Each structure stands twice: as C-alpha cells, then as structure tokens.
Design the sequence.
C-alpha cells in the first residue's frame, strides 16, 4: 500500500487542529482541583499562548507571572483581573485573583450573580486564602460567566456591576481557558 504525501500532511494537519481546538463552553467541575502541568501543556502555553500575555519573572522563586494584555487596568470601576503563575521547575501552575484599586477590601468581598435566563441569583464570597480557595472562587465565577450571568459587587446596600464589558468578560474567559489547558483540565 502506497502512502501519498498530501494525505499524510492532511492527516497531520487535522490531528494538530483537533488537539488545539478545546471546548470553550465546557464548565469545570469544582472538584477538579489540579495544579500540575506537563511538558506538552507548558510547551503549548509558552510557544502559542504567551504571545497574548504580559510576563513578569521573579528571579527569587523562578516563577513567571502572566497577565493577559487585553485586561482592564482602570481603577474606577471594580475589575477582577487574573494572573497565571507558572512554576516550571515544580511542574505546577496557579491562578491568582487580582482585584483593582477600586476594592476597599480586596481580600474579602462578595460577588452577586444573576442569571436572567433561569431567573436565579446567588452570591460567591471571596475570603483571602490559599491557592485552593482562589481556584475554587475563580472556577465558580468562570462557570457562571459561561452561563451568561451578570455579576455585581455588593457594597452596603448597592450592587456595582462587575465583569460588565465584553472586554473584561473575554479577558477573564481566555485567561481561564489558557489556565485550564495548562493544568490539563480542558
């Protein structure tokens, strides 16, 4: 049986394209807590995805901090940015929440979510904690974001919109997809 070079190239191309195409609407089970990376996931992230990120290296810990370039850096409306922390020497990566200066208490706040399609609502509380607490909080927000929920910060008797613009929502979503791919959850 003779193999034809164009068919082999087509097969390789289709395999590569299917490997790069993840389900971007898949919700993440909260119990899927994982921080381990693989050589393949780090190679993909470093060679393909880091082009969209600002990078900051910490020489003392050998960790690299990645913040998506399209994030909102304003200080007036409440903004929740994310930072992917890659620890390549220990084969681990973490996700960190970075509230902007608007938050008077950036280590303790409550996010109210509203699902207008299902006519439901609830809240997710953030209490500064370890990497697991941050992962769980951010994953809950990500799943609600995929469900097209609207978010608000609860301040006294007011609800201030959060992740309100398409840019903020997309920056959050892309960062989480990249992070979940890096730790092989997606």
Sequence:
């Amino acid at each position: 049986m003779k193999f034809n070079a164009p068919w082999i190239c087509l097969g390789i191309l289709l395999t590569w394209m299917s490997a790069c195409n993840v389900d971007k609407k898949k919700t993440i089970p909260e119990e899927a807590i994982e921080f381990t990376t693989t050589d393949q996931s780090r190679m993909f992230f470093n060679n393909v995805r880091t082009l969209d990120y600002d990078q900051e290296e910490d020489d003392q810990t050998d960790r690299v901090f990645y913040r998506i370039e399209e994030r909102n850096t304003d200080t007036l409306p409440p903004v929740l940015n994310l930072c992917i922390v890659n620890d390549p020497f220990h084969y681990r990566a973490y996700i960190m929440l970075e509230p902007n200066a608007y938050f008077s208490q950036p280590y303790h706040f409550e996010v109210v979510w509203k699902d207008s399609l299902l006519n439901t609502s609830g809240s997710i509380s953030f209490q500064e904690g370890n990497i697991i607490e941050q992962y769980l909080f951010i994953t809950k927000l990500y799943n609600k974001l995929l469900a097209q929920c609207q978010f608000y910060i609860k301040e006294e008797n007011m609800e201030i919109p959060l992740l309100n613009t398409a840019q903020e929502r997309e920056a959050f979503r892309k960062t989480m997809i990249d992070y979940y791919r890096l730790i092989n959850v997606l």
User: Anything to note?
Assistant: The radius of gyration is 19 Å. The chain has one domain: 33-182. Helices lie at 5-20, 39-47, 131-146, 166-182. The longest strand covers residues 80-87.
